[in-house]
Amino acid sequence: MQKVWGIIPQDFPFTLMERFAALLDALVYTRSRNAKLKLLADYLRETPDPDRGWALAALTDGLDFPAVKSSTIRNLMGERIDPILWTLSRDYVGDSAETASLLWPNPEMLTEAPPTVSEAVDALARMTRANVMTELPRLLDRLDAEGRYALLKLATGAMRIGISARLAKTAFAQAFDVSVEDVEEHWHGQQPPYLALFDWAAHGAAAPSSEDLPLFRPFMLAHPLEDAQLDLADYAAEWKWDGIRVQVVRVAGNTRVYSRSGDDISGTFPEIAAALQVDAVLDGELLVRGVHQGGEEGGAASFNALQQRLGRKLVSKKMLAEYPAFVRLYDALIVEGEDLRPLPWHERRAKLEALVARLDPEHFDLSAVIPAADFAQLITIREGARDNAIEGVMLKRRDSPYVAGRKTGLWYKWKRDPLLIDCVLMYAQRGSGKRSSFYSDYTFGCWDGDPDSGAELLPVGKAYFGFTDEELKWLDRHVRNHTVNRFGPVRETDKSLVLEVAFDSVHLSKRHKSGLAMRFPRIDRIRMDKPAHEADRIETLKAMVRD
Amino acid sequence: MARDFSWIRPEPWGIHVVPADCWIDPSRPVDRALVTHGHADHARGGHGETVATPETLAIMKLRYATSEGAVPVAYRETLALRGGISATFIPAGHVLGSAQILLEHAGERIVVTGDFKRRPDPTCPPFEVTPCDVLITEATFGLPVFRHPPVEHEIAKLLAALAANPERCVLVGAYALGKAQRLIAELRRAGHHDAIYLHGAMERMCQLYEELGVDLGELRLVSDSPKADLAGSVVIAPPSALNDRWSRRLPDPVTAMASGWMQVRQRARQRMVELPLVISDHADWDELTQTVIDVNPAETWITHGREEAMLRWCQLNQRKARALALVGYEDEDD
Q: Does the structure show a pLDDT above 80 at A110?
């Protein structure tokens, strides 16, 4: 059951800017994703146009006011408060907009009603560098401290409250009881304050048109294959490559690369965007050239190599040369205007194979179907691949259309069995949400040599899931009874407990003292039976690296 | 001739009134202590003789279970000390029993504010402006960003959250002496007359307030109440209990905290607070600076808090000031 939070009641506060300010504050103080969703959904439903659209744009970084810079705040305050008092205050609060909102002199009396969000956006958009120092104060004078904070955050675009585009879309869908896939489909190409989008979702108007735009289409996703065996007459098997899932879209010469969450990452991978010369919507795995996945034939480096390229806004030539990216294609959704999604997989596959032959081979290739005659043979092939870095196997129903989301029975992922290692619990931290009183985030380490001749533990990873509720209670009690040191919210334990940690792979990393970084570590078992000095050594973990 | 006020000497562990050989709010045991109020950083046990208001002495008795050497002094009653010193206790408006101490010697007047606030508080008499030569003031919230909103505004926020979440309780972290009782009294003043639930650590202090004439309405202990009764109720606990195991017995609490520090968003986030209530028993920046203006002393000495900004303000306003480096007075939970 979903938790109902909603700390902002409907009738409090009253004005639109106060309502937006209260939303911002509530989002700052709320940690749980569900609670954030509910706050946003309530706000979107209860707030009139065009305020809600502008607020949505502000929260998802869709606004930019060139006349207002972060230095504007400093300069404004420089005219109003002693610089030493400003610096002492700013240092204490840690945020210029918040400091200014608190320091701004409260007007003797409010002569004008507070601006709405859309009025403020209008005024901010009209400001120039020549008049911002007189116009921005006029807005601030109409607001109280919370309103000033919201306005300054809106103006400088530095919200930093953890709302992704995906979260905003999910909240939008929740607010108006429409499907998130439809929201995804209609969202792109719409401009703030998204009147057509609200008209469609809230009032049942026709959906906004999206032709000729390189839109993101929601991905088809897989369920884990538990212990089932499938008939390969009904299912095709492919390798599950260990990169990031992407969608490459080209419409009327415009190309975009989207990540799994629908974020536009074309700027990070310009060579991919430039390479697609056919109008199409393609689903595949973004990888870097190498030999770790599937050997020479597989042609892909480990996830670690791809990681060097992720999250960069500017890509140097050196980066492009050292970590050349390509997309291994899984599926085709649309090709040259024809929507293939209703077709069965085998028909889409035939069209995909025909298409790949026409694409730039340096940047696109095909994810091969594993030639297994039956499931028993697939098991053998999969185990033979145990030693390389492929994540596992995908099983796709041959007669299934391409449907958004995770529908039972169509696609399965059959991940490799995890790797295991025995580590020693070193530090613990309290969790959030329903785990807020429990020590549920664990940092664990391995020995850097022989523990009986003075070796030390080095942290190798951190995990906050994998255990049952009962085990969590036990671990929480263990941490409380074995604390030797406290650093703020972190407790250091006496390093007596062995945890069997499961993980998907381990990579070399300069960021960690141990020189290693695990992927998806989770607590597999509590080894109460094992003394700490028998836990594994760093060298054991290092031997599992496949970089 | 410049006066040096050498008969009073600030030391790191308290303010020494030299001719009377007594100390104000000493943080180590002394023969004779004058105590401004009952908070632990000002009122310690183990002194030979403790001079304080009857309310402060009752609070200290409750906390230290000893009342040897207690010398009660009523507000505005002047006490003759050794060495030609007289001391008068004057309401400070901080918590029940809290006092400023006016010291007089050879025509010179020095006021030690202790902790104080200027806003009305239904649980204690209000601060009184007392003219003097030296004002020794606190500065806990001595930064211009600290401007506490009206308490009614914060209480309305709390009641609104309560009404919006009938299946949950609102758990408010509040200092056990003063803040908790003021919060209850303000809730009553706002028309909230339902039973309020307490953490065990609050019980005896609330009882003492009631014995001393502060009406707090119906109070119940969380430990005596079934979980279902707590839904839709206000629960008050010490800040340390907010995210601790104790709170697991509550029905999905909205975590709130009543403190002046809640003004700053990151401070509230660090405490994992969902509903910050900016309610403080200390003077905010405007009250601190207004008090210096109202009292208009020849010199202002600042005992503890963010003294740099107060010093700067005094300098900008051509007022003579100095910071005293007293140790052990810092109130993270207020």
A: no
pLDDT band at A12 (very low <50, low <70, confident <90, very high): very low
pLDDT in tens, A171-200: 999 999 999 888 887 887 788 999 999 999
CB contact under 8 A, A88 and B264: no
In the block, tokens 């381990």 appear at: A506
Measure the CA–CA gap between B134 and B101, rounded to whole angstroms. 12
Are A88 and B312 inside 8 Å of each other by CB? yes
Nearest to B145 among A3, A102, A432 (CB): A102
State which residues form the domain around B314. 8-145+282-323
Checking if the pLDDT of A389 tops 90, the result is: no
Task: Return the minimum-mean-pLDDT range out of A28-42, A150-164, A414-428.
Answer: A150-164
Q: Is B44 a member of any domain?
A: yes
Is the overall model pTM greater than 0.80, yes or no? no
Three-state DSSP class for residue A470:
helix
Peptide linkage before A50 cis (omega within 30 of 0): yes
Does any CB of chain A come closer than 8 Å to the CB of residue B274? yes
Which chain A residue lies closest to B253 (C-alpha atoms)? A5
B chain contacts of residue A84, beta-carbon cutoff 8 Å:
312
Q: Which residues contact A514 (CB under 8 A, 6 or more apart)?
A: A445, A446, A448, A458, A459, A460, A538, A541
Residue A285 and residue A330 in contact, taking contact as beta carbons nearer than 8 Å: yes
**Quick one: tokens of B213?**
């004439």
At A121, the pLDDT band (50, 70, 90 cuts) reads: very high
Q: Does B325 touch chain A (CB under 8 A)?
A: no
Would the pLDDT of A417 be above 80? Answer: no
Residue B305 has pLDDT above 70, yes or no: yes
Give the type of residue at A439. Y
- Do both B248 and B219 map to the same domain? yes
The set of residues, in sequence order, having a beta carbon less than 8 Å from that of A314 and lying 6+ positions away, is none
Q: B245 and A4: CB-CB below 8 Å?
A: no
Within a 10 A sphere around the Cβ of B295, how many other Cβ atoms?
18
Q: Which pair of structure tokens corresponds to residue B77?
A: 């009653």
Q: Which domains does chain A have, with CATH numbers?
A: 16-61+162-203 (no CATH), 70-156 (no CATH), 223-415 (3.30.470.30), 419-542 (2.40.50.140)
Residue A387 has pLDDT above 60, yes or no: no
pLDDT higher than 70, residue A471: yes
pLDDT band of residue A231 (cuts 50, 70, 90) is very high
Residues of B in contact with A430 (CB under 8 A): 243
pLDDT for the residue numbered A28: 83
Closest Cα in chain B, distance from residue A103 (Å): 5
Task: Kindly state whether residues B160 and B140 are assigned to the same domain.
Answer: no
Residue type, position A278, single letter = V
Among the listed ranges A264-273, A287-296, B259-268, which one has the minimum average pLDDT value?
A287-296
End-to-end CA, chain B = 41
pLDDT for the residue numbered B201: 93
Q: Is B308 on the interface with A (CB under 8 A)?
A: yes
Q: CA of B180: how far to CAs of A108, A297, B103, in Å? A: 33, 71, 31
Check residue B16 and report its DSSP letter.
E
Chain-centroid distance, C-alpha A91: 31
Number of structural domains in chain B: 2
Looking at the complex, report in whole angstroms how far the Cα of residue B288 sits from the nearest Cα belonging to chain A. Answer: 15
> Looking at residue A220, what DSSP letter applies?
B
